[in-house]
Sequence to fold (237 residues):
Amino acid sequence: MLIVGIAGLVIGIEHRYPYLAKHCTAYQTDGTPDFTVTVTDKMIEDELARAETIPEGVTPGYLESLAVARAIAHRLPGYDAFLFHAAVIEYKGEAIAFTAPSGTGKSTHIKNWKRAFGADVDIVNGDKPILRFGSDGTLTAYGTPWAGKEGWSRNVGRPLKAVVFLERGKEDRVVPLSPADAALPVMNQILLESDPETVAETLALADRMLGTVGLFRLACTPDVGSALVAKQAVFGK
Fold:
């Protein structure tokens, strides 16, 4: 059994293909799992069926890793956590989640933050971080092995300061959002399972997040100035 440490949880994974162990190298740990997930052939087949695009040379091991992520996400609400589709950076120790449909320019925008602020910026996760509430109410963004095509991932957790919804624009402009305005865009980036109890728990956590962090919409160009505009909106002068 593979044992990984993610988001302050020890998770056991019953798996068959070597791909997963390599994929989770930076997250492997020891200890007694808080919970264990097992992936079946049917779950792997379902991942293939639901994929919008199939990467060239896709393997059963790759599909198993997607099924594992889904199985873990199903268990997370019981630990005040959920999987969120976003790219997360940290700036001076605080996290910002940038979310948008694929192809909108998340990677370009993050590279602009690195260009603008250098060593003050680092990556937490490039695609599927876990957001988890602590006992003190702090919402922390954690890296996971599921990090997108760039593979941007660090096994760290940073307090989440803001969620920024990206869209392409002819100029760089930030608009603050109310929780009501941000609710639907947030829901579109959360994996909701089919059973009512898990859905209800996840929605409650998402609603809690909306009242905890800053919420912004950023219409941005591919230029480095977009990072300067975003930084001022999130952190002030």
